[in-house]
UniProtKB/TrEMBL annotation, chains A, B:
Keyword NADP: no
Species: Streptomyces buecherae
InterPro entries: DNA-bd_dom_put_sf, MerR-type_HTH_dom, MerR_fam
UniProt keyword list: DNA-binding
Full protein name: MerR family transcriptional regulator
Annotated region described as Disordered, given as residue ranges: 211-247
Pfam families, alphabetized: MerR_1
SUPFAM superfamilies cross-referenced by the UniProt entry: Putative DNA-binding domain
Record-annotated HTH merR-type domain positions: 1-70
Length: 247, 247
């Protein structure tokens, strides 16, 4: 197919496709004539993956290129997952760490949090590499929680870690049936990046339900937005950007 | 304390504190003389919370102001959680939806995904308001997954929803012992925003462990970064921004 059809079928604008080609996120098309190139189903599939990583997964172009390069290497599932995690970095950029370091009220808390993270991995008996980005990310998360006075340590995290272990078993079950190695790598990436906001959403909905269960007499009316909304479709984006708000 | 001490103890630069004051994220100090204001422990605590929401939680200034205003209203825990969720919006901005809508290969998938999301809530027996942002966020997540060919529906999500329910019970247990209403609201906010990346990190570490368990013969060496790193501290940020990379 021509680039115009690739654009139409993917919903990605032509200038954006050209940008992805220049940035190496999408392999070049098959040259058919001077200034003409042909794209196939693999291009369409890759383009949709790039689009999902960037727009829904919130990855940068650089991180997307790195992770796509990583999953193209010939590795088994264990190493594919590892390389994917390394290329992705922490689930949230660790910008909170510098604020923590600059706080003289809590000297040495950086080391404490790294030790708490390591203690949790030990208590769970997890095989997690010393260089795994999860260790630093977990320490950064504990630091951010302590910075606001929420004293969350190994004991508090243990039940969450048990549930994470159960979640990972469900994840790996889904990968087990896939034969093609690139398919497995791509699915592992999709599962890690695109399922994360879905799981966060499920937790929030479950919190709403659990709060309604525990405080039945107080919850006759479902919670409502503090301000009138223009419409349900724009509500989420409005909360982030301040647009479409009646306030 | 003076603003200089507030800055020193919080690790937040004075121009940033002034910006938060102008934006209404931090209440004004107590006036002591012309051009002088005094700040107390509540200011310090609020400043640390704002810092954590923006730098670690990834919230915008607008979303932070909205959520802080929401938790200052006199509500019970059920409504406090609900208002917090509404003010936060979706866990990830739903920018993927427009790409999905523009895809003519999958007509009507928007409605399908909303129906799948509603079916999951019904199957779980969850009390979740019709206007809850979780419903739209879940539909957007399913849409993004389908866009890359991962056919995740109600059946696939059910085990994840069960684990989310168990996670929410742990969450609510942590809130149950707190007496002060503002403390509960603040903790609910911290738990929702700051624990999300921690839980995502735990899942990735558990995936690494589970993959090592299931593929033992292939995993003698722990996975490594595809490129040499400048150091563990900068590695995560490097993957996002492209800085500090040896490639």
């Amino acid at each position: 197919m021509k680039m115009s059809e690739l654009s139409r079928r993917s919903g990605v604008a032509i200038p954006t496709i050209k940008y992805y080609l220049r940035e190496g996120l999408l392999p070049a098309g098959h040259a058919t004539a001077s200034n003409q190139a042909d794209y196939d189903a693999d291009h369409l599939r890759r383009l949709r993956l790039v689009r999902a990583l960037i727009s829904f997964g919130g990855l940068s172009v650089t991180a997307s290129r790195e992770v796509l390069r990583a999953i193209s290497e010939p590795l088994d599932l264990y190493h594919t997952l590892g390389v994917t995690h390394y290329a992705l970095g922490a689930p949230v950029a660790d910008t909170g760490a510098s604020a923590g370091t600059g706080n003289p009220d809590a000297p040495g808390e950086d080391d404490d949090c790294a030790a708490e993270a390591a203690a949790l991995v030990d208590r769970m008996g997890w095989s997690v590499g010393e260089e795994s980005p999860g260790r630093a990310a977990l320490a950064a998360g504990l630091r951010a929680l302590r910075g606001v006075g929420a004293d969350v340590g190994t004991d508090e995290l243990l039940p969450y870690a048990e549930l994470a272990a159960a979640t990972a078993r469900v994840d790996l079950d889904h990968l087990a049936g896939i034969e093609d190695r690139i398919d497995v790598a791509e699915r592992a990436l999709v599962m890690t990046v695109l399922l994360e906001p879905v799981l966060a959403t499920l937790r929030r909905m479950a919190q709403e339900h659990e709060a309604a269960l525990r405080y039945p007499s107080e919850s006759k009316q479902p919670p409502r937005s503090p301000a009138p909304r223009a419409g349900t479709d724009t509500a989420d984006r409005g909360a982030r950007t301040g647009s479409h708000r009646a306030t």
